[in-house]
Backbone:
């Protein structure tokens, strides 16, 4: 039986039930195809990522991911990426975690990247300095050397984005695995909406685990000044 670990990267600012469901749906999809998922990893991005004014410190985001995954038997938080001094491209994060996963579970274990459709839409994004957020060569390596699982999200068009990228051969695009959460579709839940709700003093209960809500409250995060 094939064995893999799953990696989810992102700001997790804060983590939501949508992030957790994405990994769970990916695991169910793979296990239905006789693939054993040995663990799930949530890796928050470093503070230096794009210098977003809404991005709170990595130390808080990592602790919130730890809180969100506290009750999970297979998903864990990892701080390697977010504690680095500079932003690390996703391919490099995958290479690092593949080494760690294989040292832990065996050299036969693969690593797959799990993302929402909105992340694929960002494949063509240009950063303020004029550079590409994603390198085409990196995307190709992610698909061919690791594997890419994409969860459909509201108002995202991942396959249309891929089709527009002439650098991505059609035969590779066909290897991207699209997955859908038909049990509990929570793709409309987003970190942006949770931050706005907290700032407006609205409840976010059940949109993220209670442990995350407690951490946000104790540390007085996302409150408008």
Residues:
């Amino acid at each position: 039986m094939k064995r893999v670990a799953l990696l989810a990267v992102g700001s997790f600012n804060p983590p939501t039930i949508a992030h957790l469901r994405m990994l769970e749906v990916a695991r169910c999809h793979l296990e239905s195809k006789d693939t054993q998922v040995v663990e799930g990893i949530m890796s928050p991005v470093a503070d230096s990522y794009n210098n977003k004014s809404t991005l709170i410190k990595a130390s808080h985001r990592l602790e919130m991911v730890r809180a969100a995954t506290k009750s999970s038997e297979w998903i864990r938080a990892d701080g390697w990426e977010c504690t680095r001094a500079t932003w690390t491209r996703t391919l490099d994060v995958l290479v690092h975690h593949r080494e760690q996963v294989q040292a832990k579970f065996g050299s036969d274990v693969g690593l797959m990247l799990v993302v929402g459709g909105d992340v694929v839409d960002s494949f063509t994004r240009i950063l303020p300095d004029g550079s590409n957020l994603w390198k085409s060569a990196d995307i190709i390596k992610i698909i061919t050397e690791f594997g890419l699982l994409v969860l459909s999200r509201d108002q995202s068009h991942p396959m249309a984005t891929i089709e527009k990228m002439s650098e991505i051969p059609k035969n590779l695009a066909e290897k991207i695995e699209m997955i859908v959460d038909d049990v509990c579709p929570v793709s409309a839940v987003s970190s942006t909406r949770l931050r706005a709700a907290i700032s407006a003093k609205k409840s976010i209960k059940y949109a993220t685990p209670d442990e995350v809500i407690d951490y946000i409250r104790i540390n007085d995060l996302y409150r408008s000044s």
Observations:
- Strands lie at 2-10, 35-44, 75-77, 110-116, 148-151, 177-179.
- The mean pLDDT is 93.
- The chain has one domain: 2-189.
